[in-house]
Amino acid sequence: MKTYNEQTNEVSSIIKKRDGLWNAINPENVARMRLQNRFKTGLDIANYTANIMRSDMDGYDQDSSKYTQSLGCWHGFIGQQKMISIKKHFSTTKGRYLYLSGWMVAAMRSEFGPLPDQSMHEKTSVPALIEELYTFLKQADARELNHLFKDLDAARSAGDDVKTRSVEKQIENFETHVVPIIADIDAGFGNEEATYLLAKKMIEAGACCIQIENQVSDAKQCGHQDGKVTVPHEDFLAKINAVRYAFLELGVEDGVIVARTDSLGAGLTQKIPVSQAPGDLAQQYNAYIDGEEVTSLSDLQSGDLIIKQGDKIIRPTRLANGLVKFKANTGEDRCVLDCITSLQNGADLLWIETEKPHIGQIAGMVNRIREVVPNAKLVYNNSPSFNWTLNFRQQVFDQWADQGRDVGAYQREQLMNESYDSSELAIVADEQIRSFQKDAAQQAGIFHHLITLPTYHTAALSTDNLAKDYFGEQGMLAYVQGVQRREIRQGLACVKHQDMSGSNIGDDHKEYFSGTQALKASGEDNTMNQFS
């Protein structure tokens, strides 16, 4: 990208060619506007962020401590405030992404109103949220640069050359708030053509990374609910191909595909694939189907289905709705096969949906996958559907019991009880939760940790706290003490909500366009001055 001075000089040259007709245009103002609008299209964003993500993946392969993280965001403003906070506290956005959760799109963005995570929401709402998130992130860039331009003007007016050079350096080294989004396409919203069409819209909106799962699209369930139904590998690979075609068609060669398997918790298949050759994927998939051996055709009833499984003929176990059951306790084996197959057929990262956050369980599967694909790595859902407190307290309880330690002071099923909060066991469990991401990145091949719907919960919690006190005895003090005073003291830029919404940027534009005649909002009577 051209520097500030290069942009200014380029625009000056353009204006001079117009023989005085454009003399009202200030080249430096145009340069500022260009810098504030670095990304012209969603494809510019997708290519830029894909390069970031590929570089991060390579970095993790060299050093597992360089894992990445994200939080799920259901609105552009939430994503914007998250990245502003990250830049404020850590001075860089490196290694921090956004996650777009299909669950939150369904629950919070559908025109039908709140829906369960079953792909019933409009597919158009997914690319619409991607575009919204990046619109807000670009606005965060514009706002921060606007403040730097103000600082530059002030330094020049004061004749402070040292300050001027310092601000110019900050402008030249400005780090954008635009970061990769891992975007959930659910099970593809239909057949492979439907998946391709939606993937295109998501990429055009800015997505560099698309996550797709191996559930049946019209029977899709949340990964943490019962009743999940998977598809044969051939069907899933067709959708991976569809997403890759979409990336390549649009010129995003480094686009990233996350292949998610729900096989660990899925006990059903909708379809029995047809084997074309001994040992092919269809035959491997069918080997896990549950059934009763048939030794005589006279055992069959009308409508019965039989398949050959190894040396046996079996009648698959079917539910009343026609779905076919898998053998019990085959989930991990199916997950491993799913993952290897996906990586060998175009996927870049894996997602194994588990029923609990257990490093040993995850590592057991990843180690088996890495025997075939050595650089296999995961995106992992640090899900709010897990009871993290109870899970880790029980894990510590079990570890201590296995070590022969006395656990008589604890009741395993009651470990969530507040009475245990200050106990040694609870302290050890909390430490394991704190280090879970670092430990899992090192021991279980997890490249990216995300929380799918944290901001859903934080919005509910903060609203409950405010409503409880504001409508109670505290009245206005509830807002002042619990929100505004904390915003001021924690240095939240959002306390100046007019500035955050773009008021000052608008004032500058009015001045660019109208000069001294501009009617601006940021005068002495603007109450936002109380927060300076």
Automatic annotation (TrEMBL):
Can also use Mn(2+) ion. InterPro entries: ICL/PEPM, Isocitrate_lyase, Pyrv/PenolPyrv_kinase-like_dom, Pyrv_kinase-like_dom_sf. The keyword rRNA-binding does not apply. CDD domains: ICL_PEPM. SUPFAM superfamilies: Phosphoenolpyruvate/pyruvate domain. Keywords: Lyase, Magnesium, Metal-binding. Mg(2+) binds at D184. GO terms for biological process: carboxylic acid metabolic process. The active site is at C222 (proton acceptor). It comes from the Bacteria. Its cofactor is Mg(2+). GO terms for molecular function: isocitrate lyase activity; metal ion binding. It catalyses: D-threo-isocitrate = glyoxylate + succinate. NCBIfam families: PRK06498.1. PANTHER family: BIFUNCTIONAL GLYOXYLATE CYCLE PROTEIN, ISOCITRATE LYASE/MALATE SYNTHASE. This is Isocitrate lyase. It comes from Glaciecola punicea ACAM 611. The gene is aceA.
